[in-house]
Amino acid sequence: MVMLSEVLEAPDSVKLDLLFSRLPTVFNVVIFSVHGYFGQQDVLEARGTKCDQELEAIEGTKHSHILRVPFVTDKGTLRQWVSRFDVYPYLERFTQDATSKILQRFECKPDLIVGNYTDGNLVASLMATKLGVTQGTIAHALEKTKYEDSDAKWKELDPKYHFSCQFTADLIAMNVTDFIITSTYQEIAGSKERPGQYESHTAFTMPGLCRVVSGIDVFDPKFNIAAPGADQSVYFPYTETPKRLTKFHPSIQELLYNEKDNNEHMGYLAEREKPIIFSMARLDTVKNITGLVEWYGKDKRLREMANLVVVAGFFDMSKSNDREEKAEIKKMHDLIEKYNLKGKFRWIAAQTDRYRNSELYRCIADTKGVFVQPALYEAFGLTVIEAMNCGLPTFATNQGGPAEIIVDGVSGFHIDPNNGDESVARIGDFFSKCSTDGLYWDSISNAGLKRIYECTWKIYAEKLLKMGSIYGSNER
Fold first, then answer.
1. Which residues does the UniProt record annotate as the domain Glycosyl transferase family (predicted)?
2. pLDDT tens-digit profile of 167-219?
């Protein structure tokens, strides 16, 4: 009551925030993640997993479940995987089916609906509007800023990406929602050199289709910044020896150094004593993993200083259902051949075990290696957070959120993905300085750890629930 009295007498943002954090107004929450197989482990190919179960309890929680609702067509349930660019014809029917299932499970309306990505946010908007429920939107990465001139070239790109549907869905969600969560300021309003992801939707034209003159107001108070984090019980510093997951060491050694190619890895490292340059991401154009491989292949100095290991996608194009990934797989094989990377480069297929992945980061740190995130654009960069949590000095793209996570030259380094020569020189200079200053690697590692403690899932969850309470106080 004292807190309420203070807010009524002399309201300010701090007191209001504290009051809403104490009010029990959010009990039932729906979080949408529509695209792809969704499970807790080993879902890369879905076989042998629980991805076909309608309801699955979330490990380590109470009263939290994964509810799976399939896409349905006039011909019945859709069984095959669908690219995120091709899901739009199924979303209206999915919303109807998901709404029925959720009301049946809760036996009441949810208090908060949170969407993720374009498809999940559109579904969340449709459901929240129908039920009159508070909605939160998390875009993660709006595609419009990822592909240069994608609005002007929409006709050319539409058969492959369906941007006409995607940009429309994004505009609907960001305007209908009660609040928007972004990871960084740059996601909203960009920088001096580049417009923000949301800012780019303020006004644009898709010739022959539409002209957007007031797409979104980036000064709207619905915008909030809440940086996600890594699970610090899983991603912890390599120096915390008693906590190290040593049971994974034999399989990680095999993963990194076994010289025989198999379905999980190809290529080998002839000089094991060298530090490792490490990267892990989806194998697509924007993540720019092949760009990193090309930088490394071109630079003789860096090849002599360090090995390169990447975790990304498949080796065999026939195993991929994604058009873009297939093109990147072919490009990767071409680069390995072009720069004769045998003995210096290891390509590991995408990994799904986050516990082993966390120990893999730490094993890379044991080699006094680095993590590189070379994306052409990155809204936030969760792998950057994971790597820094494990104590790895990190080089990350200056295009997007990682530029806010890392203080350049102090807690890590910014690299320009559009200037490979400059980027690879920065990495080479780092290893060169480490060879003459025995404390330099540790100083960057420790500064990264200090910086990253500001980003945790606990802080993120608390902020999200506060937003649900604050924005939920307004009637839809």
1. 270-431
2. 999 999 999 999 999 988 889 988 887 888 999 999 999 999 999 999 999 99
More confident residue, 45 or 284: 284
Is the whole-model pTM more than 0.85?
no
Strands 210-212 and 55-57, by their bridges, are: unpaired
- CA gap 54, 428 in Å, rounded: 50
Main-chain phi, psi angles of 165, to 5 degrees: -75, -45
Q: What gap in Å lies between CA 114 and CA 96, rounded to an integer?
A: 17
Q: How far apart are CA 259 and CA 343, in angstroms?
A: 9
Tokens describing residue 102: 């959720």
Per-residue 3-state assignment (H helix, E strand, C coil) for the chain: CHHHHHHHHCCCHHHHHHHHHHCCCCCCEEEECCCCCCCCCCCCCCCCCCCCCCEEECCCCCCCEEECCCCEECCEECCCCCCHHHCHHHHHHHHHHHHHHHHHHHCCCCCEEEEEHHHHHHHHHHHHHHHCCEEEEECCCCHHHCCCCCCCCHHHHHHHHCHHHHHHHHHHHHHHCCEEEECCHHHHHCCCCCCCCCHHHCCEEECCCEEECCCCCCCCCCEEECCCCCCCCCCCCCCCHHHCCHHHHHHHHHHHHCCCCCCCEECCECCCCCCEEEEECCCCCCCCHHHHHHHHHHCHHHHHHCEEEEECCCCCHHHCCCHHHHHHHHHHHHHHHHCCCCEEEEEECCCCCHHHHHHHHHHHHHCCCEEEECCCCECCCHHHHHHHHCCCCEEEECCECHHHHCCECCCEEEECCCCHHHHHHHHHHHHHHHHHCCCHHHHHHHHHHHHHCCCCHHHHHHHHHHHHHHHCCCCC
- Phi, psi of 282, deg, nearest 5: -60, 155
Q: Are 131 and 110 in contact (CB under 8 A)?
A: yes
CA dist 380 and 288 (Å) reads 15
CA dist 374 and 417 (Å) reads: 6
**Position of tokens 């505009």?**
171
